Amino acid sequence: MAEVGGLSMGGKEAKQGVTPAPPEEQRTREGLTTPAHKLKLPYTAFKEFRDAEEGIEDFLHDFEWQCLLLEVDHADWVTILGNELTRRAAEAYRAVSKDQIRDYEVVKEVLLARYAITLEAYQRTFRGIRKGEKDSYTEWACRIHQAAQNWVASQQAKSPEKVPQLFMLEHFYNGLSTEAQEWLKDKYGPVFTLYLGPNPGLVICGYKAVKEALIDQGDAFVDRGDYPVFLNYYNNHDVAFTNGEKWKSLRRFILTTLRNFGMGKKSIEERIQEEASFLIAELSKTKRSPTDLTGYFAHTVSNVISSIVFGSRFDYEDKRLIAITNSINNNFCIMSSMWGTLYNMYPDLMDYLPGPHKRMRKNYQDITDIALESIKYHEKTLDPSCPRDYIDCFLIKIMQEYGKDQPDPAFYTQSLVMTIHNLLFGGTETISTTLRYGILILMKYPEIAEKMQEEIDQVVGRNRSPSMEDRSKMPYTDAVIHELMRFCDVIPLSLPRSTSRDTFYRGYNLPKGTYVTPFLTSVHRDPTQFAEPSKFNPKHFLDDKGCFKKEEALMPFAAGKRMCLVETLARMELFIFFTSFLQNFNFNPTISKEEIKLEPIATGLGTVPMDYKCCVIPR
Question: What pTM was computed for the model?
Answer without folding.
Answer: 0.73
